[in-house]
């Protein structure tokens, strides 16, 4: 089968590798219908050291079950399924609390132990706890497939930011970042009842989609100038909620500068730093709550599928380019150059 392998910064290749096989009785083999490139895939694309053997890539998948292990009970051959970007048993106390990305028995794709999902076939561990069957839909229902794919990561990561911030009706919410996760956070904030949604982004095609998703204001400025713009829009008080969807220190600093006293900063941009201000002059003095983390999309996906199927939300609009699997390297390059917002991949 064909699979995507990254050998170092900027070096993405599509290669023929062995088909995956059932390794544990709880595994399933899933044939890809659609997958995609994630903004987080660009982090190693920028700075991964060169390696001889490379690392398989990808963690978002909508596909059809081809084979199941002897212990699998909830999915069967022929089911159209969504694979959340982390696999989990969905039965342990941590999963029951709704934090499947921290399942002590689970893990992530695109690691030395579990291959990535930008491939024609994938092995999904803990299939009963991880795979979610989409009822009444087949791979031929092409119009709805992109939005269903967003439930494996991008939309529900944006939703996780909004959910963890406990957005309430009437609040002002500021979203930092106009990538696919940031735009998904705008849509989620709108769904949760935010009265004003300020989107901080500089790319008009993206911020136009943000307005379609529910943004009421767009601020292109960054840093101190951007902070002042938000303060001006909020009477000097700042934003009740800040959803940070970038992951770099300037975005965190900007979040601290615009959050209202007693407010919440919710981060879902994968942090590219370990140390950040949390003391009296940053968070403590204003009673700021800092939350967020890897989105446990399995906790949200059952409620989100009907919203996609009945047209309440259409998060698949974040995909603005489609490539075949052979052209994935060009997809990475296009996203890195900001020529594409998010790239959909077909086998």
Note down, in words, how this protein is organized.
- The chain has 347 residues and is α/β, with parallel strands linked by helices.
- It has two domains: 2-153 and 296-346, Medium-chain alcohol dehydrogenases, catalytic domain (Quinone Oxidoreductase, Chain A, domain 1, Alpha-Beta Complex), CATH 3.90.180.10; 158-292, Rossmann fold (3-Layer(aba) Sandwich), CATH 3.40.50.720.
- It contains eleven helices and 18 strands.
- The strands form four sheets. Strands 3, 5, 6, 9, 10, 17 and 18 form a seven-stranded mixed sheet that branches. The chain has a six-stranded parallel sheet with strand order 13-12-11-14-15-16, with helices on both faces. It has a three-stranded antiparallel sheet with strand order 2-1-4.
- It is globular, with a radius of gyration of 20 Å.
- Residues 25-126 form the Alcohol dehydrogenase-like N-terminal domain.
Describe the structure concisely for a colleague.
This protein has 347 residues and is of the alpha/beta class. The chain has helices spanning 42-47, 93-96, 127-130, 145-150, 154-164, 180-191, 204-213, 223-233, 249-258, 297-309, 328-336; strands at 2-8, 11-16, 28-36, 55-56, 61-68, 80-83, 86-87, 107-108, 121-124, 132-133, 172-176, 196-200, 217-219, 239-244, 259-267, 289-292, 321-324, 343-346.
